[in-house]
Design brief:
By secondary structure, the protein is of the alpha/beta class. Helices cover 34% and strands 17% of the residues. It has one domain: Phosphoglycerate mutase-like (Rossmann fold, 3-Layer(aba) Sandwich). It has a six-stranded mixed beta sheet with strand order 3-2-4-1-5-6, with helices on both faces. Strand 2, helix 3 and strand 3 form a beta-alpha-beta unit.
Length: 212
């Protein structure tokens, strides 16, 4: 059995402003840093055999904070990057709707085959996330593996693990600095917990804005 601890990165300034982040390399905000500190402290009760992260800064900073309290090395995994939103990155939903309403409607109607201008489709993202997931669960059995990534990447990873259609990715709510757990057996994966933010309640307030 491979135990995957799925960790969404902490909040950024763009999270608070509701901006599409995509693959723009936005760092954690001070609020996000506080979230990550609380998360890292919560995870001292765990022992990671491996710790993988998206190579984007907000995920990398989150993983480094966790690793600082663990005896493990952070390993970058670019396939866990957020979906590329192209020309929409840095914009709010209202700004996109005003500037590019038809493309936005097409993407919302079928994100698997429509992308933001200069971005990638959900189907294209699924290929790399599925490859990353297959690599993670191919490691030796009876290991606990930390996976630090983005809302969209983790939602698709859950779809891959649980055999859910990728179009249903949005049904998995994952707040910044949240913790979820998957146990992967030869017969399939079992979701043990989803979107746990209890570690944030004392030191900071969790934010659950929908932008990726």
């Amino acid at each position: 059995m491979v135990r995957l601890l799925l960790i969404r990165h902490g909040a950024t300034a763009w999270t608070a402003e509701g901006r599409f982040q995509g693959q723009t390399d936005v760092p954690l905000s001070p609020h996000g840093q506080r979230q990550v500190a609380a998360l890292a402290q919560r995870l001292t009760t765990e022992k990671f055999d491996l710790l993988y992260t998206s190579d984007l800064l907000r995920a990398w900073e989150t993983a480094q904070a966790i690793a600082a309290l663990q005896a493990c090395v952070v390993q970058p995994e670019p396939r866990l990057r957020e979906i590329a939103f192209g020309d929409w990155e840095g914009l709010t939903y209202a700004e996109i709707q005003q500037r590019d309403a038809s493309a936005l409607a097409a993407w919302e109607g079928d994100p698997c085959y429509h992308a933001a201008p200069g971005g990638e489709t959900l189907s294209q993202m699924l290929i790399r996330v599925r490859a990353a997931y297959d690599s993670l669960v191919a490691i030796p059995q009876d290991m606990t593996v930390g996976v630090v990534a983005h809302g969209g990447a983790l939602q698709l990873l859950l779809c891959c693990a649980l055999g859910v259609a990728p179009q249903a990715y949005w049904q998995f709510a994952l707040a910044p600095a949240s913790l979820s757990e998957l146990c992967v057996y030869a017969q399939g994966a079992r979701l043990m917990s989803l979107n746990d933010t209890h570690h944030l309640q004392r030191s900071t307030h969790s934010t659950n804005l929908p932008r990726l």
